[in-house]
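Repro case for the chain-ordering regression, as requested:
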Amino acid sequence: MAILSKRAETAKLAVLSLIAIAVLVPFWIMVSISFKNLRQFLQNILYPSPPFHWENYVSGWNAVAPYVLNTALVAVIVTVVSLACSSLTAYVFARYKFPGRAALFSALMVLLMIPGVLNLIPQYVLALNLGLVNTIWALVLFYVAGRQVLEVYIMRTFFQGIPKELFEAAQIDGAGHVRQYASIAVPLSKSIMGTLAIMTVVFVWNDYIWPLVVADDFKTVSYGLSFLTKQHSTAWGSLMAGYALASVPLVILFTFTMRYFVEGLASGAIKA
Amino acid sequence: MARSRRAGVGQLYLLILPTFAFVIVFTYYPSLSAVYHAFFRWNGSNIKEFVGFANFIRVIFDDPDMPRAVGNMALLLAGNLILQIPTVIAALVLYHLRYPKWQYGFRVLFVLPMVVPGMVGMLLWQFIYNPYVGLLNRTLAALGIIDLPWDGPTWLADNSLALPSLIFMGFPWINTIGLLIYLAGLQRISQDLIDAAMIDGAATISRVWHIELPMVLGQLKLMLILSIIGGIQDYGKVMIMTGGGPGVSTTVPGLLMYQRAFRYSHMGYASAVGVLMFLVILGLTMINLKYFKTHDDQAEGA
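-- result from build under test --
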């Protein structure tokens, strides 16, 4: 029995290891090629071999740096502005009754049903008419609007879970709506806001079609990388180094926050 | 007092105003505009002529590329659905690992594809399929199946291989979010249930079949429906990997919409494609909501 279960355990580990290797192969190849010059690249790509061409990372960085910096700037502005707006709205919907509350909330939530494909063309025409095309604002304004619904929905649920007594005590002390929001709701919701901020950063980092349509002069990472790939000739080493460098910020972000992210996902799954 | 309360209520509207301003200008208005302009011959600026349902009729009956696009989309979706299976298997095997340390280690490895930008993953697969210097043809050459890498298939540039290549990319198709959700579900199975099964002398296989698989199945259904709804509107992958080509052999409706709009300025026609896709997605969402509700009730009743 013990031998059998040991064998079963080995089999499981073998299966998972094979899957893991297959998952990692593309990324391993990327790292391997990033250290090679053209001659080495043509000979063998399976593993890095000396001499290691670190200078690929310099040229790779020079190529992707503008995209990374653009994306970081957009992500920061979008995160701050969208969370400021959506947290206020979520707070109001969670905490107060007022005429039109239900209708306004449904008017917001109905947007969850509208797919991006429907809006792409008129959004482009709107950006064109407002003179936003090829500026950072075409990205920022539409992204902020796009993030609102999900953020309001998630934060409203969170705010509803905060005990009413906390707010009422502050109210008795004479704190107004804004004061209660700023001194009670916001400090208590740092973790949920952090999670939403990460989701926004990841979204901006990965979005491809909208920047392709409106941000030729302000390329973000995904569009920039595909653009770069079409342009490049035989500099495979620096191209792969560029891919790797463009991935680093997200990898770091996730490394530090994965725990919260997985917990949130797990608890969300349990609720569902 | 009443006065100050009314002032307070007024302030509430002011606080939600920024959200609504953003959403009305940049989301609501475009959605309505899309529906409205679907009834026009429209180039986005000076040409605008009411044509009734002509755009819709042309999309459904007269677009030479649309049947192919819908067929491709169906095949991509079908591939997508079948390829959820490896994730389920990985989750089950991972759950059965005896040592938490190993479990944790593999979970971290499987999360990697998610933390690397999606674009990098796709471009790496584009490289893997590169017929001259890519990993796939080099491997085939090394195994002696073809003489030299460039004797091999051209994969994404090949009329009949491009679509299968698109489906195959992403091997071994571990869907990170799905994996984490399945694991969370499995870990929710109560120890009592497992103990009871053990006392009954249930073999591992029957435990998997009768307890764990049903647990995963509910969540799998959700993942399937999300992947259908996402798959219908996702044309970024096709656009990046093949541009819909060669010819129209890998095109999908979303990509046709994009090309009609931005290559030929047929904005009204493209809006009609968008509206039709919206209706299909809406229909599926409705079916899903209805279907899911009954499913949950059954689960509770059981």
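Ordering looks correct now. DSSP finds twelve helices and no strands in chain A.
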